[in-house]
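Figure 6 in text form: structure in, sequence out.
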């Protein structure tokens, strides 16, 4: 191991985002993992806490302790304090989980993640905010600026991953997933962060934004071929 690899591994990482970033940390030579926050889009993570849990929401319905933890941390809004408390850790952000809607209920907001819905969360009795709704981006920018403020003075890397248009066989994904619309939203979000957040950026050649039809998590526009994760790891080591 050379000195650069050693320095990289000595610094710990907080990942805010999704498996897009987390899966790459199985590769060698990357920082130790300090914390991983997923399934909590920015509009929820930096929004107000609910005064009481909505009727029907029961975290005990989730058999996975990791899934319970993700939903619980979203409900309790622990991310802002966790980011402000960082010292030498590097923060790596991807925006894939910004695809989730957020329900405004009981004076606060909760992410409508797959896990939260499995635990019984519904929009019933609340107001649903979808990323495709008019006015959503105005709300999102306010929350994103709160995040930028929490990260002021921290070491931040923006993992600029877009949804894949096709898998490695050349099969188009747009007939099963709303790839183009989600990438339009991601582009607006990335543009905002690059103008408001002091960060390094990891970008990808178009050919690496390819889905892996045999990915262990299943076919999805954000479950990529191995070369995608290898590119991320190499770029992280050089930043």
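Output sequence:
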């Amino acid at each position: 191991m050379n000195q650069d690899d050693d320095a990289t591994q000595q610094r710990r990482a907080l990942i805010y985002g999704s498996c897009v970033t987390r899966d790459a940390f199985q590769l060698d030579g990357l920082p130790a993992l300090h914390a991983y926050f997923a399934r909590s889009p920015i509009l929820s993570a930096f929004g107000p806490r609910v005064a009481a849990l909505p009727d029907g929401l029961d975290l005990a319905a989730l058999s996975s302790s990791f899934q319970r933890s993700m939903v619980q941390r979203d409900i309790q809004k622990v991310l802002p304090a966790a980011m402000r408390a960082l010292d030498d850790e590097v923060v790596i952000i991807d925006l894939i989980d910004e695809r989730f809607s957020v329900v405004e209920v009981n004076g606060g907001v909760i992410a409508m993640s797959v896990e939260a819905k499995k635990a019984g969360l519904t929009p019933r009795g609340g107001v649903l905010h979808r990323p495709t709704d008019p006015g959503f981006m105005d709300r999102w920018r306010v929350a994103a600026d709160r995040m930028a403020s929490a990260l002021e003075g921290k070491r931040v890397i923006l993992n600029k991953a877009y949804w894949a248009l096709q898998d490695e066989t050349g099969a188009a994904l747009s007939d099963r997933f709303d790839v183009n619309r989600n990438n339009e939203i991601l582009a607006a979000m990335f543009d905002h962060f690059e103008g408001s957040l002091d960060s390094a950026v990891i970008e990808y050649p178009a050919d690496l934004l390819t889905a892996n039809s045999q990915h262990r998590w299943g076919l999805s526009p954000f479950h990529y071929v191995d070369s995608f994760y290898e590119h991320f790891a190499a770029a992280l080591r050089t930043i």
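Caption detail: The chain has nine helices and eight strands.
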